[in-house]
Description:
Chain A has 400 residues and is α/β, with parallel strands linked by helices. Helix content of chain A is 42%, strand content 19%. The A-B interface holds A 11, 19-25, 27-29, 167-168, 173-174, 177, 180-181, 184-185, 187-188, 281-287, 289, 292, 294-300 and B 53-62, 65, 69, 72, 77-80, 102-109, 129-132, 134-135, 152-159, 162, 177, 180-182, 185.
Amino acid sequence: MTEHYNMPDERGHFGPYGGIFVAETLMPAINELNEAYHKYRQDAEFQRELDADLQHYVGRPSPLYHAQRWSEALGGAQIYLKREDLNHTGAHKINNTVGQALLAKRMGKKRIIAETGAGQHGVATATVAARLGLECVVYMGAVDVERQALNVYRMKLLGATVVPVESGSRTLKDALNEALRDWVTNIDDTFYIIGTVAGPHPYPAMVRDFQAVIGREAKQQCQEMTGRLPDALVACVGGGSNAIGLFYPFIDDASVKMYGVEAAGDGVETGHHSAPLCAGKPGVLHGNRTYLMADEDGEIIETHSISAGLDYPGVGPEHAWLKDSGRAEYVNITDDEALQGFHALTRMEGIIPALESSHAMAYAMKLAPTMSPEQIMIINLSGRGDKDMHTMAQREGIKL
Amino acid sequence: MSRLEQRFAALNAAGRKALIPFITAGDPYPEFTVPLLHEMVKAGADVIELGVPFSDPMADGPVIQRASERALAHHVGLRKVLDMVAAFRRDDEETPIILMGYLNPIEIMGYENFANAAQRVGVDGVLTVDLPPEEAEACVSLLKARNIDQIFLLAPNSDAKRVELMDKVGSGYLYYVSLKGVTGAGHLNTQDVEQQLAMIKQHTRLPVGVGFGVKDAKTAKILAEIADGVVVGSALISKIEANLDDPEQARSEIIELLSSMRQAMDSGA
Ligand SMILES: Cc1ncc(COP(=O)(O)O)c(C=O)c1O
């Protein structure tokens, strides 16, 4: 690519995707956020504070680890893992919450709200709110509250109020609806920390920018360790924040292939999945235009995935654009395949990945053997599997 | 002139204000809706906002959320709502009907398909909660070409610049959301509304309706004195919810509430 990639435009458009599709009451708040974001993005003092927090509180840079044994076993590309699982709170989510919380503080907001699915973003938000002494309310679908009891407890320990959402399908999308309702109602003093690259502009761009530290580090680490760029990047895609965080700094490097891995649940052909890029169509939800899972009347379809963090019917608008433009490729992995990825990494490298990240591992197991041992693949290990012990044990009929 | 413009012009000439009920199509079951629309017209409705059920009603409070869920349980979506408008039009060619809902059903149908269908069945206006004027041009121009108005919402925190933008892009009327929050929340403060309306009126030539939080005849009367129209939604739908085992009772309570509002709005004017 000779041209420099510079999406989105100033109203948040990635080609036909993205934009600002919200109720009027939110417009002034979104404009206020947009202004603050653009101001602090170029503010050296803000960046210095952010970098210091990422280093001392989150524990960055996260290592880039050469999974030698696993690479050899698969007999293809050299696999490197970007270890976001080693971050404070156990996933990439905290990169973004640290950034947005700093912004909230600069904007003088006293109250933080968030939505969460698996609870990872909720925990990461409750964590930074505790640290800054801000009130924190986390919306979580009632179904997820039940299947992620451990994270609910963590959030409560951190001082957050967890509100179970009983409307709709009682999962992540409904938690997002409820958070938007809260925001509309408490617009003056509340900052909404969205957990992925979705929502109205500026969220998709802002969350990307906070997560892009993953790709910047990976690029530098790869250069230092191997003297060259990677050939392929692999990351799971729920809303798409860990994927875009890894991809973004490589977009202008045309030789680097990018693979986003969606959750195929029982298989996309069954309809029980969470793979809007692979099997959905463009529409508008939660403030932006993107690929969605909707029926013929435009009603949002219930999703399915073994991993609560991928269980979302939409996807960040930038991924919709990267798909249409052909810059990135989107593939899908079933629940059963993800479990194989989970076990493979655990046994081969002694690293227990989150079920979300296991989707990326499972795809790497297909892709690596098609590549040569001289080639390099970086997989985003977006989180650790501790939170999933209960789900795994249950699935295998073991009582903890 | 669109049917909506005619209606507001006639009301204006008669010195009356528009009573605008909102109900969710298909709630509590599909056959309930069209007869209710006719009865609401008899009870004094000037314009009807018909809610298109959506799976993710982000700007609605619990009452309208549950109405949507009840309608969706009967698979009432945009296509069935258009059929209902066609059925209503067989017996009523005068009362303007506004479809109120969210953008995704229209996106999935396609703007042009939707505009054609809306024109064919006799829809007069479209109010899309999550379509701000900045993103509305493609949709508005297709609707306008078919004499269908795009109605925009104004909020308590909308400034003069935004009112001017709505005035430019929108038509039919503007809908002033009287409080920061979701539908059905709290009670509105009529003094705040009056102040804000005075500002809005300086920046638009369109009629302005007020809604969100209108629960009784008394509030309707006060608002009728300061606005061009009064929208009542959650208060009507609550009647359905309170009488799920007796839809006839729900119907008569809705009509009773609407009639009392009509009377109050017309008295002492
Ligand atoms: C470990 C982990 N990876 C990935 C995701 C999916 O989110 P995203 O696609 O925004 O990275 C989640 C969400 O909860 C997560 O916890």
